[in-house]
């Protein structure tokens, strides 16, 4: 049983009194609901407590059995993102439950349409709750996968393969109509595809009310040419919603439907974050439209995008910009980027990805970051870059080095790290790159102010030992994300924790696949030294 779940049990014991609490605890462990009246916390308080249990395996499902009041508060949480990380069997159960939420007319129409494929929907009882109304995040790709799994269970695979895309679209259209009509909480909509050659439902499906009217996040992720209905949806989206705060667009480089994106940008009154990836031709039109949201935009992230001088002029007008990412974009020339020096924004976070020949442009953009910059991610380190960071960005507290390999010039590490009052450091090297075996990084290179260290890269055991053996930094948090981590690495970390006595938090990616020896070692660290072991489901948040 999780520690958070145990806390809830203890909380109930203290709150409702011994008699009622004994009944509650008994119901929890014997799968019964309780009808015994008990003092209720306000709903807002209950939801805050339940959110701490939500990500844990089966935690909230057990809480469903306490009483009706708990059940009523937990069901919306469980059904807000129901498509995530489902097994084939649970996908079937999910679709089966949603079909049970259909109006009688929609259910009969779907049953009639499926009869032409010799598919008969199993008998379905009306559910206790109208589960579709709680949906908050909806990915079309996840819906396709879930429907595909359901049809596999209904029919044999040979028959499905002849008509599977038609069958999936038929059921997906019916369920999309259900979500558009019933979901009063839909905040996030993601258009992505599992079957790249099939289309999404017709636009008439998405104009149902309340539909998309409450969206705060919209994402489109396409690597193939956009389908007809997708294009129509993008054209109509400005008329369906106007309060999107986060707009995330990923197009293939040959896509040309940029007018619709520009229109979406200009009609969203509270647009706070804009992400664009993969657009080469026509990016100028999209980025130029950001001027219309210059007062509200705080975050702009561009990846593999062609950027012109006009684009940088638009970026420079976003006076409240705090977070800027330019990751392997084209058009990054001094004559294009110099306009940013006239900008009035004060960046807090900057992410730069370049080829090694772009030191001048990287240096110019770092000057734009200036003294307000607190977080920096960069893949280019040389003497010029280090000097500019130290001179222009002296208040950086957090650095992430991406795919940078310190070999014979690792003195730059020392110069950079000790020139800043660095508190957080992450080193990321793509797992496909084996150059890490030549990397020279010792604990003596780490600054004395460092409290957080995340290693998303490979290390030989000898490198690992040398790093922690020579480290004098008062590390409080260590996170290791390394695919070949083994028990020997864990022992090195244990020795460091035992000797330094500064570490409070430890995260190991891949703990679920760890050997019994490794698990035993982590339990010992938790019990003997009070180390908080970050759960696997929380690691992405650290």
UniProtKB/TrEMBL annotation:
Residue ranges constituting the F-box domain according to the UniProt record: 40-83
Keywords, ordered alphabetically: Signal
InterPro entries, per database record: F-box_dom, LRR_dom_sf
Signal peptide: 1-21
Gene3D superfamilies according to UniProt: Ribonuclease Inhibitor (3.80.10.10)
Protein name: F-box domain-containing protein
Organism this protein belongs to: Rhizophagus irregularis (strain DAOM 197198w) (Glomus intraradices)
């Amino acid at each position: 049983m999780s520690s958070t779940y145990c806390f809830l049990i203890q909380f109930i014991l203290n709150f409702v009194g011994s008699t009622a609490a004994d009944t509650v605890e008994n119901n929890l462990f014997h799968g019964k609901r309780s009808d015994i009246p008990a003092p209720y916390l306000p709903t807002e308080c209950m939801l805050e407590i339940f959110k701490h249990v939500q990500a844990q395996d089966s935690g909230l499902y057990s809480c469903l059995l306490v009483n009706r009041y708990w059940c009523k508060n937990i069901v919306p949480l469980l059904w807000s993102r129901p498509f995530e990380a489902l097994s084939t069997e649970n996908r079937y159960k999910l679709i089966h439950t949603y079909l049970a939420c259909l109006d009688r007319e929609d259910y009969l129409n779907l049953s009639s349409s499926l009869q032409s494929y010799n598919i008969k929907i199993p008998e379905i009882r009306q559910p206790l709750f109208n589960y579709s109304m709680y949906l908050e995040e909806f990915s079309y790709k996840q819906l396709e996968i879930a429907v595909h799994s359901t049809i596999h269970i209904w029919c044999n695979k040979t028959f499905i393969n002849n008509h599977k895309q038609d069958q999936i679209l038929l059921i997906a259209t019916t369920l999309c109509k259900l979500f558009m009509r019933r979901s009063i909480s839909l905040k996030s909509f993601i258009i992505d595809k599992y079957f790249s050659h099939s289309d999404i439902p017709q636009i008439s499906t998405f104009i149902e009310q309340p539909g998309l009217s409450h969206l705060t996040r919209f994402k489109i992720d396409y690597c193939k040419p956009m389908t007809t209905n997708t294009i129509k949806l993008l054209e109509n989206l400005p008329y369906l919603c106007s309060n999107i705060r986060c707009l995330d667009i990923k197009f293939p480089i040959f896509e040309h439907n940029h007018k619709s994106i520009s229109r979406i940008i200009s009609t969203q009154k509270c647009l706070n974050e804009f992400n664009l990836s993969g657009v080469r031709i026509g990016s100028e039109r999209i980025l130029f439209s950001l001027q219309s949201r210059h007062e509200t935009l705080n975050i702009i992230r561009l990846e593999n995008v062609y950027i012109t001088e006009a684009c940088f002029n638009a970026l420079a007008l976003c006076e409240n910009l705090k977070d800027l990412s330019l990751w392997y974009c084209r058009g990054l020339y001094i004559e294009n980027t110099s306009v940013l020096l006239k900008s009035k924004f004060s960046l807090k976070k900057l992410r730069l990805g370049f080829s090694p020949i772009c030191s001048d442009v990287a240096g110019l953009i770092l000057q734009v970051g200036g003294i307000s910059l607190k977080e920096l991610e960069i893949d280019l380190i040389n003497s010029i870059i280090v000097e500019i960071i130290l001179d222009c960005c002296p208040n950086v507290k957090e650095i992430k080095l991406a795919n940078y390999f310190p070999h014979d010039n690792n003195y730059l590490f020392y110069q950079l790290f000790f020139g800043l009052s660095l508190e957080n450091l992450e080193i990321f090297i793509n797992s496909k790159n084996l150059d890490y075996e030549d990397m020279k990084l010792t604990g003596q290179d780490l600054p004395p102010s460092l409290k957080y260290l995340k290693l998303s890269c490979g290390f030989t055991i000898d490198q690992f030992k040398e790093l922690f053996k020579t480290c004098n930094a008062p590390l409080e948090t260590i996170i290791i994300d390394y695919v070949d981590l083994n028990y020997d690495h864990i022992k090195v970390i244990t020795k460091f924790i035992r000797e330094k006595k500064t570490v409070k938090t430890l995260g190991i990616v891949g703990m679920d696949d760890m050997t019994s020896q490794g698990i035993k070692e982590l339990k010992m660290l938790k019990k003997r030294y009070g180390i908080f072991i970050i759960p696997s489901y929380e690691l992405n948040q650290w």
